[in-house]
Amino acid sequence: MRVGITLPSRTGPIPNVFEYARRAEAAGFYSAFDYEVYRNPFTMLAGAAVQTRRIKLGTGLAAAFSRSPFEAANAAADIDEMSGGRMIFGLGTGAPELLKRLHSTDAKRPVARMSEYIDVLRHSWEYLSTGKAAPLDGEHYRFNPPPLNPWGSRELARPQIPIYLAAMGPAMLELCGRKADGWLGYFATPRFLEESVKPKIAAGAAITGRDLSDIELCVENICCVHPDRDVAMRRARLQVGFYAVHPVSDAVAKLHGFQDQVDELRARMRREGLAAFAHTDDRIVEALSITGTAEEARQKLAEFDGVIEHVVLHCPYVPPFSAEESADCFTNIIEAFGDLAAASEGPAQTAGTR
Hints:
The chain is α/β, with parallel strands linked by helices. It is built from 13 helices and twelve strands. The protein has a domain at about 1-220 and about 305-315 and about 335-345: Alpha-Beta Barrel (TIM Barrel).
């Protein structure tokens, strides 16, 4: 099992992110992922790329519907070139509420749009590297290269960059199986992986003559480690609650019998705002995060061994976490898991390999 880590980036100076990536690589982690919260995930990975040599660098995730496929393909190609072929393109639709309010678009028909988006990404990389690519005329996206390419081609680190699709619902999971190179999830307990994620991805893969083994499964699971278990739980309640109230998390909540508790938390959030997450039910925290002392957290991570190929330990970052508190969470993860990460299957590889 490969072990990665996310890089805190919501608060604090951006150069901190580059240093976090360097520390993750030095500790032996297989991958380092950033995320798109106000800051551009490609910009942050660019800095991380020049500070590291071996660790895989992923967007966890970049929003698709707020940027054109060609622009996203170009940005990903930049990171792949700067890192010597270490880019993992984690891709999701983007938060529906933010797409409408901040990006002048929406999340309507997300599966059909994402399907075309992935096609245009791959045609874009072909066009960039060869100067030629077949046109696409979709319902949501079109790709029609000009008959004369005045700029020529650009040399890419790899002809195609692996696309890891963020998916939780059945239709998007099936699309992942049909078209993506990997799956990027969260709140993925071993039971959810075995009963929901794997069967749906396998069904999608079969449609295109592929197998489940052709898609790498990767999950970002919230991780809160501290010598004082009460501190770890307090931190985890904030992050787990923040994620649990989003409707996309209902698939996991229903499977584990937490839907009533999640609905109660949503109601409390409407009354109290972000303060409600301090009251997230501990049963949800225990089930949906890797939380506790270092020994407890290591035991929880071990439950995924043999179930999934790639676990990314997700450092808490949501409000009211300060830059200093997120940095402490990151350090605790490094100290608790660095030796396991370095010894895990698939250590950080030489640049240019997948």
